[in-house]
Hints:
InterPro entries: Ankyrin_rpt, Ankyrin_rpt-contain_sf, SecEffector_AnkRepeat. This protein is mainly alpha-helical. The chain has three domains: about 1-80, no CATH class; about 80-135 and about 150-155, no CATH class; about 165-210, no CATH class.
Amino acid sequence: MPLRDKAKDEAPSEWHDLKHSSGFCTKMKGDYAGSGNLVHLKWMHMNCDAEITAKAMDGAARNGHLPVIQWLHNNCYVDCTTVAMDDAAMNGHIQVVRWLHENRSEGCTKAAMDKAASNGHLVVVEFLHQNRSEGCTTAAMDGAVSNGHSNVFQFLSYKRREGCTTAAMYNAASTGRLDLIMALSKMLQADFTATAMKCAATNGHLGVVE
């Protein structure tokens, strides 16, 4: 078992003195934050002066560990990056997204809504639309359609103007989503029938072809 994996399963007091001078402690603080292990993270904070980097809060946000984020914010004055909100949005951690928006200044990028939409996290998409100014790209609707998230597609089509690319149509056909094919045809105002039907037939969706 790699040393870092082994250390995660042990109290830091069991390995700290041996590894402190190697830079290992900074990595472990990040690992503890990312895995939500606040008990071990607090021990390290009290007993080790190794730096806590932005990766700690970014990782905690990615995995939805709000108590860790709040503790880091209040006790360590640690930075994070836009990756924190981007990845929290990607994984649907709405409470983390909301807290970062209200308490931190790093913000997010267009990737936040793109990833949230692609993964079907409508509540997150709605929050970002209502509270943030970064917006999204065509990847948001493309991803929502590709993964069959019709509710997200509907929201984006009504509330956003970025639209999608022709890839959305082909992916809808490939997955047999006739409802999305029809909606996209109307929105794109173009006839992709031949190519879409070919994609559907190739993937065995004969009902769409008929």
